[in-house]
Amino acid sequence: DTGVSQDPRHKITKRGQNVTFRCDPISEHNRLYWYRQTLGQGPEFLTYFQNEAQLEKSRLLSDRFSAERPKGSFSTLEIQRTEQGDSAMYLCASSLIERTDTQYFGPGTRLTVL
Amino acid sequence: RKEVEQDPGPFNVPEGATVAFNCTYSNSASQSFFWYRQDCRKEPKLLMSVYSSGNEDGRFTAQLNRASQYISLLIRDSKLSDSATYLCVVNPRGGKLIFGQGTELSVKP
Questions:
Q1: Residue B89 and residue A73: Cα distance in Å, rounded?
Q2: Neighbours of B23 (CB within 10 A)
Q3: Is A44 helix (H, G, I), strand (E, B) or coil?
Q4: Is the peptide bond before B10 cis (omega within 30 degrees of 0)?
Q5: How many whole angstroms separate alpha carbon B81 and alpha carbon A11?
Q6: B47 touches chain A (CB under 8 A)
Q7: A6-65 pLDDT per residue, tens
Q8: Would you state the pLDDT for residue A18?
Q9: How far is CA A19 from CA A34, A66, A91, B6, B15, in A?
Q10: What are the φ and ψ backbone dihedral angles of B82, each rounded to 5 degrees?
Q11: Closest-CA residue to A70 (of A57, A97, A51, A56)
Q12: pLDDT band at A2 (very low <50, low <70, confident <90, very high)
């Protein structure tokens, strides 16, 4: 399977715990995006990388959230001191720089904070 | 005001019906426009791009009116398999996608 993969697919955690999600983009894609989707809403942009550089962060990305893409390949999204409001589907997408309007999404990581 | 607004529905239609979804966007500088489809508990997938001249892909027709900042999607002869949430998506400069809330479609036998 050469699509975008995400791990884990599901995560249940207690409030106050830290969680980390991983995204592996399509191998030749140099852009990687993170989005968050809550029930009944469309995905909301969080941040994106071009290679290893983080180029834009949404105001939604509070200081409890951090994302990295250390070698320009896979990316991690960490949430510290989780809150119940963090419960959502976290979606990763990737694209080529010259085709940023064509983004391929992974299956998402569904986070439940108890 | 949200950047991309859609009627959330749900739209409940019988098989064979024609259904139309509408969407408005607020950023007049937006450059590209799309409709994505999202099945229940799955990731969004690109359905089609939307061009000012209008474009068609089989039973699906998309239209863009830049002056009114309005996007539409028409589905003809709807099938049971068309049941999904349809997301209106705008790409302003910079690469990120801005999604509408999504419109839920349920096609009944």
A1: 26
A2: 25
A3: strand
A4: yes
A5: 30
A6: no
A7: 999 999 999 999 999 999 999 999 999 999 999 999 999 999 999 999 999 998 888 999
A8: 98
A9: 15, 11, 15, 33, 44
A10: -80, -10
A11: A51
A12: confident
* Alpha-helix residue ranges (DSSP H) falling in chain A: none
How many C-beta atoms lie closer than 10 Å to residue A40's C-beta? 10
B96 lies within 8 A of chain A by CB: yes
Residues of A whose CB is below 8 A from B100: 42
User: Measured between alpha carbons, how far apart are the two ends of chain A, in Å?
Assistant: 33
- Minimum-distance CB partner of B46 among A33, A100, A102: A102
Closest approach of B48 to chain A, Cα-based (Å): 10
Residues with Cβ within 8 Å of residue A59, at least 6 apart in sequence: none
B14 to chain A nearest CA, in Å? 23
